[in-house]
Specification:
Elements lengths: L8 H4 L23 E3 L5 E3 L6 H89 L11 H12 L5 E6 L6 H23 L6 H6 L6 E3 L6 E3 L11 E3 L21 H13 L3 E8 L5 E12 L11 E10 L15 E7 L23 E7 L2 E6 L13 E7 L15 E7 L2 H6 L4 H48 L2 H16 L18 H4 L18 E8 L1 H6 L3 H22 L2 E6 L2 E6 L8 H27 L7 E7 L1
Antiparallel strand pairs: 1-2, 3-6, 3-9, 4-5, 7-8, 8-9, 10-11, 10-14, 11-12, 13-14, 15-17, 15-18, 16-17
């Protein structure tokens, strides 16, 4: 296509080699730096390269994922360590609770066991003493059982009570009276009752009744309470009877104006009769579960112990004869008092008998669904030195079943083979359990305190991490902004294809292990003047260059610009060039023309590179035409601000194919 000759025509001669770059050899790429550069002092410095934005964004995404992963790990660590700390402290408190309860239980079982041994030893000594006194009396006055009154009875019974450790036991002596001795026994009891009544009143300080009044309310014959009418009824059955004689404390039955004297209590019920038969066969003490009447007519669980008395001081002799029994009723709550110090509260003690309860018809309760009052089991709660009866059942908290401490409370060491068929060896067991109240009283806030401390430490660590992360992200944003600016510059300098190839080569160098930095000293992509004039980069790789055989180069030069600009201020010149070249750039983008460069008032562009076009010459002509039209429009608009001769400027174009 025809063009106007100008000083730029020489440059058109080189278009056959490719797109021009500042008048040098045609290229469509750049040289990459590699290796190390030697500084002025001779030290080698690592080569610095440029990382494309896509790589930076990808790495930023990886960093974000890593950051989230670290945050998740920290969160899980906080939860895990806090939970573990809480569980460890709670487990330690639980262990302390178990150890402390174990100490309490051991103390309870040891003391009660010792008291039980002391009780039966004292009872055996008391029975032996009574037997020895009777034998001595028999030698002096030829008296014998059952016609024997124990002198100073209440004094001796009080000593027994002190030795047994029971606050207010009931103690009585019941001689064994054969059938042919009943009438004589009734007369003997009637004669001796006023004597021992008076002694007991004086020794005990009893003031409710006089001795004569007690005689008046004494049944003068051996009797039992008739279950049908509740009235004292004479004993008429054949065989022996075991009536109460002397009793401590003196006085009538609680709630009744009747003395115990002459009552055949042991053989008037199946349960007490069985206990008596066991004692008679084994010649050893035995016990049974019973209820003890207290003030107000109420009853509480307890046991009735039967201790045999023999006809001489030698209780181990084979030919000894059992002539009487000592009966003592004790509430087991007395044995559980003063076991622990004040403040050591809420410990459950379950007292259980190995023998089932006998029902009113004489049948065994074992295996039957019975109300609490029919079971040989009772539960107490120990609160320091005090004890509270909870009920006649196993009332401990099942949650603490595994904590139970069990010991035999009373074992009379009776040979089962000596007993009649169906009899039960009386054995009492104590089961000691903790309670929720006891565990709660030993809990502390250490689990919460330690957990909070751990959480605070981790929160502080997390805050430090977040602060560090914030500083890193701030630096990354700064670097990323610089990268994006450089990327825009690179995109403006190079075509997309060339830019992408530069990125690919750069990424390849980084992958092969070269040191990389965000921005090199030579600018974006490590470019220097080697891109413009050297044949190879410093790392030995060939520069990016391609041959484009079908290219049209467009030169556009402002006619009259030199004289016009000499009469203008620099900023007027800048406004003119900025306006005109900006309009040309928009046209180049619209037509797909590649802008090569601008030098002064000269605009250089090419068509057919870096993207080949079959109609490159046509496009170049259209572009040149539109540029001329755009120049005319622009100068007319600028004439007002830049002077009347601005519209005189013209455009000289040259097109080389």
């Amino acid at each position: 296509m025809k063009g106007v000759t100008s000083k730029k025509s020489q440059a058109t001669q080189q278009s056959s080699h490719g797109s021009t770059g500042g008048g040098g050899e045609s290229r469509s790429g750049s040289e990459s730096r590699s290796g190390s550069e030697v500084s002025g002092n001779g030290n080698a410095t690592p080569r610095q390269t440029y990382i494309p934005p896509s790589v930076a964004k990808r790495e930023e995404a990886n960093v974000l994922r890593a950051r989230l992963l670290v945050a998740l790990i920290l969160l899980l660590a906080v939860v895990g360590v806090a939970t573990a700390t809480n569980l460890i402290v709670q487990q330690q408190e639980r262990s302390d609770f178990e150890n402390k309860f174990s100490g309490y239980a051991t103390e309870i079982l040891t003391v009660t066991g010792s008291k039980a041994i002391q009780f039966f030893d004292a009872l055996d000594s008391f029975a032996s003493s009574i037997g020895a006194q009777a034998a001595a009396e028999h030698a002096l006055r030829n008296t014998s059982w059952p016609f024997y009154r124990i002198p100073q009875w209440s004094v001796q019974a009080q000593k027994l009570a002190q030795l047994t450790g029971v606050d207010e036991p009931f103690v009585g002596v019941a001689p064994i009276v054969q059938e042919d001795e009943r009438q004589e026994w009734n007369r003997f009891a009637a004669e001796q009752n006023p004597i021992w009544y008076q002694e007991s009143i004086e020794n005990e300080g009893y003031t409710r009744f006089t001795a004569q009044e007690l005689v008046n309310i004494t049944i003068p014959f051996t009797y039992f309470f008739n279950a049908d009418n509740g009235q004292p009824t004479p004993v008429t059955r054949p065989g022996e009877v075991v009536p109460y004689f002397q009793a401590y404390p003196v006085g009538p039955l609680l709630g009744l104006r009747i003395m115990l004297t002459n009552i055949d209590a042991l053989l008037s019920s199946q349960q007490t009769e069985d206990a008596y038969r066991i004692t008679k066969v084994t010649r050893r003490p035995t016990l049974g579960y019973t209820r003890i009447m207290i003030d107000g007519g109420n009853t509480i669980p307890g046991s009735q112990i039967i201790q045999p008395i023999f006809d001489g001081p030698d209780t181990e002799a084979d030919d000894r004869k059992m002539v009487a029994v000592v009966l003592i009723q004790i509430p087991w709550s007395d044995y559980l008092k003063n076991l622990l110090a004040k403040g050591e509260d809420s410990i459950f003690v379950v007292l259980e008998s190995a023998c089932p309860t006998l029902l009113e018809d004489g049948s065994l309760s074992e295996g039957k669904n019975l109300p609490n009052s029919k079971r040989n089991i009772v539960t107490y709660q120990i609160n320091g030195p005090d004890v509270v009866l909870l009920g006649e059942d196993d009332l401990h908290d099942p949650e603490y079943d595994t904590f139970v401490k069990t010991e035999v409370f009373v074992d009379l060491r009776i040979d089962q083979s000596q007993l009649p068929e169906g009899s039960c060896v009386p054995v009492l067991k104590l089961h000691v359990y903790p309670s929720a109240e006891l565990e709660d009283s030993m809990k502390t806030d250490n689990d919460i305190i330690y957990t909070v401390v751990v959480v605070v430490i981790f929160v502080f660590t997390t805050l430090v991490f977040l602060l560090y992360d914030f500083s890193v992200r701030k630096r990354q944003r700064t670097v990323m902004e610089r990268i994006m600016k450089q990327d825009r510059i690179v995109s403006d300098v190079f075509p997309t294809a060339i830019r992408d190839r530069l990125y690919e080569n750069q990424a390849k160098n980084v992958t092969e292990g070269d040191d990389a930095d965000l921005v090199g000293d030579d600018g974006p992509l490590g470019l220097d003047n080697s891109y413009l004039g050297q044949s190879a980069s410093k790392d030995g790789s060939a520069p990016l260059a391609e041959l484009f055989p079908s290219v049209t180069v467009v030169f556009a030069d402002l006619v009259g610009f030199t004289s016009w600009s000499s009469a203008r201020e620099p900023h007027h010149v800048f406004i003119l060039l900025e306006t005109i070249y900006g309009a040309f750039d928009k046209l180049a983008y619209r037509h797909g023309v590649f802008k090569v460069e601008t030098v002064g008032d000269c605009y250089v562009a090419a068509v057919g590179l870096p993207e080949p076009k079959d109609d490159h010459a046509v496009v170049a002509c259209r572009f040149a035409r539109d540029c001329l039209k755009k120049l005319n429009d622009a100068t007319l608009k600028l004439e007002v601000s830049l002077g009347p001769d601005t519209s005189d400027l013209d455009l000289r174009t040259g097109i080389h194919r």
